[in-house]
Amino acid sequence: MPDLMIKAEKVNKEYNRSGTIIRALIDIDLEIYSGEVVAIQGPTACGKTTLLNVLSGLDTPDDGKVFLDGENISRSAEKRLSTIRSQKIGFVFQDFNLIDSLTAIENVSALLWPTPLHKKDIEKRALAALRDVNMLERKDHIPRQLSGGEKQRVAVARAIVHQPRVIFADEPTGNLDPQSGKELMDLLVKLNKDYKTTVVIVTHDQQIADKYGKKRVRMDRGKIVDIS
Ligand SMILES: Nc1ncnc2c1ncn2[C@@H]1O[C@H](COP(=O)(O)OP(=O)(O)OP(=O)(O)O)[C@@H](O)[C@H]1O
Ligand SMILES: [Mg+2]
Fold this sequence. Notes:
This protein has seven helices and ten strands. The protein is globular, with a radius of gyration of 17 Å. The protein is an alpha/beta fold. The two termini are about 20 Å apart. The chain has helices spanning about 50-55, 80-90, 105-110, 120-130, 150-160, 180-195, 205-210; strands spanning about 5-15, 20-35, 35-40, 65-70, 70, 90-95, 165-170, 200, 215-220, 225. A hairpin with a 2-residue loop joins β4 and β5. The mean pLDDT is about 95. Helix content is about 35%, strand content about 30%. It has one domain: 3-Layer(aba) Sandwich (Rossmann fold). Adenosine-5'-triphosphate binds near residues 42, 45, 46, 47 and 49.
């Protein structure tokens, strides 16, 4: 039996928007095992991003528990959450979130600048990550010199440079054409195979969820309505 990487127990999260309570997550129970590829699907505003944020320690639940790699992170202080994120988690976003003024290799390296690693080691790791996503030849380009698919591959290199246990990707193909989207998904699945990295992907795209999600979690109005 593989290790339990993420466990959510009765997780609830509300937002208060000008006096109106929005129940973004309602009694969420979820188990994700080490090495799984999980696709989270559901209509807009059903709570997918909120769930990803709570599972990854970007946000905290109002009540319930979230365990990440065995540690209950649902009440952790921001300092601890930030350490956990920087050691165990890689993020990929729909709009790439690269720093416009930095080259590809600088964007990837930047994640390691706060660590005590030596400059040479940081460069070595950044080059290895760029090689993994097949972007070594474009390492000195800034984002505006890259296509959408290439930007997203640099973003994936940044997500894996610290060898995380889990990659969380929120609509990673949302701004890509179908071919680049397919290549990006193939890349995430390859990383999952090669490094046993757990991958949790939010997607609107039914075909992507069916093809790549070994486990599919369907949400609707703040609840998980199906796991297959
Ligand atoms: N910071 C916030 N303040 C107030 N309401 C919020 C906030 N973040 C999310 N919400 C609300 O919570 C609900 C769930 O939002 P969430 O972003 O998780 O949905 P989603 O499934 O990711 O949608 P999409 O597919 O459009 O990205 C929505 O009704 C949204 O408006
Ligand atoms: Mg979202």
